[in-house]
């Protein structure tokens, strides 16, 4: 983040906009404003950067930004409020300075990656109906052509015949530009308001995740071919004119698939035409499910995505000391990324970032009573895992100096140069007595030294960077996780063993080679060990550390290819748009297995190569019609150059799976009921119908919808005049070429759902509470119903550990709810750092959650038109002391009791951390509509729950 790295040129601090921070955006005392860093500072510190072992520099967005967005009361130092995609932000320098930085990096053998945005621009477009309005769904108000005809944009996404639109009539809100800003954006095509979705602010879930504005940022209509072509032209120019080596792509999951299917191949092909054969693009898909994140590298033809699942697994292993088998399970899912032209080895791995927070912050939060030495050891262990395992390691600036911070976003964006931000000056850095009041470019810091050492080792032994990653060993509970890395060329095996426990651990680790010497090249342990007759390596690993052993020679060549047998291909459980294809291979040496597929009329086509057991791919068949016949085969290549091919196996493309999203199972309903469903895989051609059954009676039609990606209708129960307690079921139905499918039904109850007599947190934690294990009748594990919001809560103090639990109702197991509020569902898992934790149960959704004080914001205000009556100097002040709520440690609900508020009609929101950067309005929607409150005068209590983000007055 150039603004937070080094200030090489103080003359550009205000971007040429003058001294007023609310105009220039420059205020080095505030974490939400420009602090002064720039490209000149990066160039000045390139020795420091390269000394870390860095081979590439990834810059956060550096285009010209709207310096200040008054509604946010902060500045565009982060780079995500772009107005000019052709110019470097003046606060950071000039286009010429960027070219100088890239040229200097290239002269040192380093690459420069640009962080780019295709999803949105700065908040320039307002609406005739008002600024930052709530989201309006496509079902409630469809898009209209310029001729006034309703249409679904998904029917035209990726095609050249997208309908013409009219700004005054095509959208649910009429886009409006302030005088003087009609031509603010560059290139000029970005000033056309019909090239934006114009549907209001996103809540980051469902349909609006792709169509809504991010806190007012103008969301581009990426389904339109003009937007696709325009974005391609913008970023091709940075490759052509500046020599940029690749792109990190922001908010990838919030853009439609057709955009990436065009953008990725076109931009990559252009770069290669210019001779950039190693040009590399990786996207931000903020999700920890491999079956989902991998869709962007398979279905959407992109090269790689940031490995958020790795970040989650690495934190669990190194910071939380989780069972090492969870890490084994994590790596076992790597084959989701395997296809014909990419695999998991390309993914950038990381431990923390500018949005979610730093690894040092996570370690401090997960280990509150630990010494600094232990925290540094855990930090180093996390980096050892990242550098030695598959993927491309990314270090977030400042992590090498032990930076922490209390959270993500602005709290994780400290300056490496001396800071004047009060919130940063309070941070406790790891591995040093230094603070943020001084420069922190210390090559002698233990974390800088460790990262440099790891980078040097993997450069000397390339197999530790690029070799096949084969799982070898995992303990039950904390202890040793081990894997091997093997280079396809030299066939030398490296065994990596990491210990996440606080005691020395020993293990017998399987290898590819029997009776062979292995030499220690990293860590503390025996200098040389010989494998047993069975090929196991006896290692001992100190606490919170790692060792690496290198085989004394290559793996013996196989005399002949092993037998290979293909298992029956089956639809992948986590992604119905893919077929899981597995092969059993005889022997236990280093092999590569290539899978091929063909349709009845086609020829054999490669679909992926796997170099670690178990051998499998997840073939993406979402584009094919259900019922299409497929045939698969596998060919094994051994390390002696021999091959063998399996017999082929037949399969068919599965029918889509239809899932009801709303209503929630077991919820209570009245009046109009919202019904919605999703299909897996999703196609624009789908039409979904909904049906209702009352008290087990016949199914009757409710309505249908063909507007993807979320299909929804409303069912008005009022004319039926159903008595309270009536059971109603809903289901969704869809048919098409080769399929006819029905969703699982959802049951709801008319009227207010009666509360149970009791709710118990029943699980392995009961013994720590003085009960028997999994005791649904234990009084000490029973939650209390809060009548203010009808949420059941229980706060308990537990020792650190991993716990399994459910919500058991009425003192028994007849009615219980597990993960995702499912009746008799899977156990919930709590990785607890130790200390107090609050459990919540909501009887309308049956969701059970565990909440920590550390997850809470630093402050919550009821900010609104009641500011002056509360004693503030003005209304709508998020930093007013009199408007601040206090966190109740007994239930983790924020509360403010006002003994006598004068009568009136008020509007308010919840504003977090004494600013408008994060705020919640009606229904807990981020940046949502104001909440209206009619008060007769007298006492009132405001309450805010950070789980639901709901703020209420009562």
Strand content: 25-35%
Evaluate the radius of gyration. Answer: 29 Å
Instruction: Calculate the terminal CA-CA distance, rounded to whole Å.
Output: 44 Å
Poorly predicted spans: none
SS field, number of helical segments: 16
Number of strands: 57
Arithmetic mean pLDDT? 95
Principal-axis shape: globular
Query: Oligomerization state of this entry?
Result: single chain
Highlighted features:
6-stranded antiparallel beta sheet, alpha+beta, 954 residues, 16 helices
Report what the structure shows.
With 954 residues, the chain is an alpha+beta fold. Helix content is 15%, strand content 32%. It contains 16 helices and 57 strands. Strands 50, 51, 52, 53, 54, 55, 56 and 57 form an eight-stranded antiparallel beta sheet that branches. The protein has a six-stranded antiparallel beta sheet with strand order 16-17-18-23-20-21. Strands 34, 36, 37, 39, 40 and 41 form a six-stranded mixed beta sheet that branches. A hairpin with a 4-residue loop joins strand 56 (938-945) and strand 57 (950-953). The longest helix has 18 residues, at 225-242. The radius of gyration is 29 Å and the shape is globular.
